[in-house]
Specification:
Length: about 425
Amino acid sequence: MLPPEIHTVVGIDVAKQAPVVCALEAPSGALRHKPSRIEATAAGYALLRSWWASWGNPEQTVMGLEATGPLWEPLYDTLTRAGYTVLVLNPRQTASWASSLGLRAKTDGIDAQLLARGLLAGLARASTLPSEAVQALRTLTRARRDLIQTRTATRQRLHDELVTLFPEFVRFLPTLPGRADLGEPAVLALLSTSSSAHALAQVSLDELTTTLERVSSARWGHEQAQALQALACRSTASTRAVSARSLVARTLAQQLQELAVHVAELEAAIADLLHDDADGQRLQAIPGIGPLNAATIRAELGDITRFQRVDEVVAYAGLDPRTRQSGAFIGQKQLSKRGPGALRHALYLAAFVAARCVPEWRTRNERLLARGHAKKEAYTILARALLRVIYHLLRTGDAYDPALLNPSSPATTG
């Protein structure tokens, strides 16, 4: 229930253009301010200030916002700077309120009033807001993942174009000194100027040699140029839409070059943040966890103190096994996969590296395999065990100690 000093509860359905505000009296629940829109501008916030001035002192008011992406942040800052208690609510939590009330319609006004009613009933459980460091790492790591996905898709598209423009080219790349591929900056620099067998066959050998020397910083020269041009002259490349396809390939190669620059910028910013973050440094001391994995785990896990027990953090990561059972049917155990997928992926990669490179984790992995677990299942179990270690170290501030893992005891599935 609400404290007795609270006289007003306010639900705000946040939106990009026009949030909706609804206020109820406490504890009666009488409508104090019907659902009304405000513009998400300085003028709209000024209008909201004129409303809350009539609702009593900040100490007598509780407000609730739904955590819809980042849209709640500007309004949250405005309200908290004015001294109001503001609860940021999980959308799953508020959806359960609507389900329990049997609401069939969904409008912004109904949503705002629903938030106020949930606050009034004392049902609200505020979300834990990330610290500045966690928020910064979360922003950077998620942006980097987006760029990596874009890079992967773009590289595949470039490969597909080369299948028609110069099908022998991709197979030629591993023969170059350094075993190049389509991610090699020198290869992208070459393709951004000449992207078809037709173009490479027409250019003079001296010019091609000079180009290869320039893009590869002299790693490739006359011998490679001669081999590449010989391939181009006898290529089985398509002769259809060569000009258009060449333009597309050059564009894709240039896009990959730009993406590499942006990814490097993000990774440099992530490294700077980790350098000054104690928990980030502590994570990197754990076997299998490098800087980028540490940043992802730190960003997606957030403040570890918000979890009271280790089982809570395992469930948050979606690494808790769930059994499907109904009557005589008993299904196989599967992971709940409820939490951030990026966190599970980072933990799985860390477990994979640790099982291959770290003696105490390799021993645990071998025992799991000997007990009949499949490789992926064993890595998942190790990821869960690694998360338990992370939870302990971040909670206590202790240093990683391989002796505490007690590799001589049977590995558990917990």
